[in-house]
Design the sequence.
């Protein structure tokens, strides 16, 4: 069925309520808008759903939420697990409570109990609740830190982690099999409650969650010792973190916690923020202002669903507030936890430290320092949660800590997803500990750099307002990054040349070679004399991360996952990964390459892309882009 046929069907089908049909009829004649809303079904991927709120098959609405839930319900019934129920949480975004109710009532209509929180809750508390209630699955209605017009739907399995293989593809198959909205079940809420199918989670879950977090505290006595002296500024970015973060800090004994009032209350429009992302320096404008007024030691911000944490801390030497990257805050927590556990004989003999492949290699050095196993997993925190499950099933390791470079980490095993609430607790406790040594968190970060052979460098740059220009090619974006890096006099320079686009048949041929033999060396795919990126290198792993926030009014673009291993003409051997693809509101593209035997001081990397079905070039509208370089140990840091 084409997009126009789908549009007309929605307008005529009485399954869709009158208000929906009336709104759709109001766009009659606007073919571009109709096409964008109906040219495809909103994709249910390994992370669930995410899209712009509105009516149509390619939008987040009560009908696409029901359809996804029907597929999930069908899978749960095939697993013979309908009696275990599903826990549901939601954030502060538009339509979040409504979407949560629709999911619950669809499950109920399929004979599956739903346990739903009475108001907004952090994503990590949902992970915790799935485990506490022994549910078969969990659902979180959230679009994390995306713009306000978005919402989303994430699925968790019985261990409390987001779905991984093979469950992810099995659930996706069931969701895709639901093609007729008329077959999607729902029921009235009063009836569901009367039948015992619709259940509201009690406040005792909050008590249990906070209690579990407090068990992770190592130096409670030190907090009480410096409680009168340490000052904390916190902002929940209008999201779910406000209540649990303030509660945990108060119960631990922190006395001077200042909330950014303008960002305290839930606000689905994120009125005070251009972008509710703790990675965005502009999002800290109000928090930094308050911190200067209060002479705060530390500034903390959680994203709207409170699973990611941004940090600033005062530099004792300059009095300035310094921003931490996700790698830096992760390493700060890791060093604090492992060193204190070792000192108190709490470190497991078979302890494990888990990181994603795109996260800093400083983690390797810290793991070696404390004699814990370093385990590297694919990008996505669900793979860290999965490792905890494997440890428990196989009896191999005890989880010590896990993190990813995109500002997420998990202290403890109470949840199986990143948890910014417990991260706040850990960082504030660390701040109290270092306060007794007349140090701030930034001072300690500098010591960590020195201890493990790194040099702190501002190697992350964000380019904003790109979509206010006309559409640009992928190479135009890379060239703009290079210009910005040159203008900023970065420690690492990038030179961008022409990006060669190859047809999908050629790309698929290379992809098959890579997957069939991971040890095969591939010659470069484009002209070696015209490389796309030239980077200075020394032995070690290098990672370049591009993060895009897309204006989805332009849906062109499709860059695929590829893993290349290569020999260069000068004898350099190595590999790089291209992870993810561009489609949706935000994606991260990773280039990771290892240099093992360089014969020169640079490696030349040529990229290959697969064009979209309708386009011969990669045309994107990108709102902002962040490029980050991750340096290896010692030699590279010293040489760049």
Sequence:
């Amino acid at each position: 069925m084409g997009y126009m046929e789908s549009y007309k069907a929605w307008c005529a089908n009485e399954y869709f309520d009158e208000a929906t049909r009336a709104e759709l009829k109001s766009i009659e004649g606007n073919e571009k808008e109709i096409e964008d809303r109906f040219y495809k079904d909103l994709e249910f991927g390994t992370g669930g759903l995410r899209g712009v709120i509105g009516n149509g098959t390619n939008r987040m609405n009560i009908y696409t939420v029901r359809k996804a839930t029907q597929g999930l319900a069908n899978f749960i019934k095939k697993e013979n697990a309908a009696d275990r129920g599903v826990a549901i949480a939601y954030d502060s975004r538009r339509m979040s409570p409504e979407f949560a109710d629709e999911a619950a009532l669809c499950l109920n209509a399929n004979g599956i109990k739903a346990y739903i929180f009475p108001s907004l809750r952090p994503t990590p508390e949902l992970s915790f609740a799935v485990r506490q209630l022994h549910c078969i699955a969990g659902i979180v209605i959230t679009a994390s830190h995306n713009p306000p017009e978005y919402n989303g739907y994430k699925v968790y399995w019985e261990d409390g982690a987001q779905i991984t293989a093979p469950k992810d593809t099995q659930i996706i198959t069931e969701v895709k099999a639901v093609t007729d909205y008329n077959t999607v079940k729902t029921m009235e809420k009063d009836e569901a409650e009367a039948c015992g199918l619709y259940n509201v989670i009690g406040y005792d879950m909050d008590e249990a969650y906070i209690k579990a977090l407090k068990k992770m505290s190592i130096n409670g006595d030190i907090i009480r010792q410096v409680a009168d002296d340490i000052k904390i500024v916190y902002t929940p970015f209008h999201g779910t973190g406000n209540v649990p973060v303030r509660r945990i800090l108060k119960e631990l004994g922190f006395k001077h916690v200042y909330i950014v009032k303008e960002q305290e209350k839930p606000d689905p429009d994120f009125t005070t923020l251009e972008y509710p992302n703790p990675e965005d320096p502009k999002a800290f404008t109000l928090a930094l202002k308050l911190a200067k007024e209060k002479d705060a030691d530390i500034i903390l911000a959680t994203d709207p669903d409170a699973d990611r944490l941004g940090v600033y801390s005062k530099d004792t030497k300059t009095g300035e507030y310094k921003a931490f990257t996700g790698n830096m805050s992760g390493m700060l927590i890791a060093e604090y936890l492992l060193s204190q556990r070792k000192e108190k004989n709490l470190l497991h003999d078979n302890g494990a430290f888990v990181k994603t492949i795109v996260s800093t290699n400083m983690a390797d050095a810290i793991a070696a320092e404390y004699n814990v196993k370093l385990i590297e997993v694919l990008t996505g925190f669900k793979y860290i949660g999965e490792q905890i499950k494997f440890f428990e099933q196989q009896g191999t390791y005890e989880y010590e800590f896990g993190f990813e470079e995109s500002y997420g980490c998990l202290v403890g095993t109470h949840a199986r997803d990143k948890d910014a609430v417990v991260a706040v607790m850990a960082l504030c406790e660390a701040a109290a500990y270092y306060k007794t040594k007349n140090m701030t968190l930034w001072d300690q970060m500098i010591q960590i750099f020195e201890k493990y052979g790194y040099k702190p460098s501002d190697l992350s740059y964000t380019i904003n307002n790109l979509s206010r220009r006309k559409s640009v090619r992928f190479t135009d974006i890379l060239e703009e990054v290079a210009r910005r890096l040159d203008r900023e006099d970065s420690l690492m320079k990038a030179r961008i040349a022409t990006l060669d686009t190859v047809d999908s048949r050629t790309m698929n041929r290379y992809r098959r070679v890579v997957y069939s033999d991971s040890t095969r060396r591939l010659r470069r795919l484009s002209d070696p004399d015209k490389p796309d990126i030239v980077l200075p290198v020394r032995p070690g792993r290098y990672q370049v991360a591009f993060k895009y926030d897309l204006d989805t009014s332009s849906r062109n673009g499709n860059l695929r996952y590829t893993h290349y291993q290569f020999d260069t003409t000068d004898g350099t051997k190595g590999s790089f990964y291209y992870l993810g693809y561009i489609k949706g509101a935000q994606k991260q593209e990773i280039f990771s390459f290892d240099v093992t035997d360089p014969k020169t001081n640079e490696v030349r990397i040529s990229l290959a892309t697969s064009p979209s079905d309708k386009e011969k070039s990669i045309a994107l509208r990108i709102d902002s882009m962040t490029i980050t370089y991750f340096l290896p140990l010692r030699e590279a840091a010293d040489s760049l």
Observations:
- The chain is about 35% helix and 20% strand.
- Residues 503 and 610 are 6 Å apart (CA to CA).
- The two ends are 56 Å apart (CA to CA).
